[in-house]
Design goal:
2 domains; single chain; 5 helices; 103 residues; mainly alpha
């Protein structure tokens, strides 16, 4: 995905001129913006909303399993792992959230 730029507006206006229309740049931009908002989607939201949980608990151990963290403090890893993934999911799904920590 990317933002609409001046080249997109120019190309769209040129295509409309070939069809006999004489649009101004502001109207072309507003039409593109309106269509983009109407047909927007979030691929992450689409993917995750289609998943069904199989009942297998995985969050407690993902830091040790996938990142190789020492499992000396399993309660701590389970807590931090759940919080971090929850925040990452909120960011991905465009919920108002901040994730100011790195792993």
């Amino acid at each position: 995905m990317r933002c609409v730029d001046d080249n997109d507006i120019t190309n769209c206006a040129a295509s409309l001129e070939k069809l006999g229309m004489t649009p101004d740049r502001v109207r072309v931009y507003n039409a593109i913006k309106s269509a983009a908002e109407k047909f927007s989607f979030n691929p992450a939201r689409e993917y995750f909303s289609g998943l069904v949980w199989d009942g297998q608990a995985r969050l407690d151990k993902w830091l040790a399993y996938y990142l190789g963290c020492d499992d000396d403090a399993p309660e701590y890893l389970a807590f931090i792992g759940k919080k971090w993934l929850t925040a990452a999911e909120a960011l991905m799904l465009s919920l108002p959230a901040r994730l100011n920590h790195q792993m």
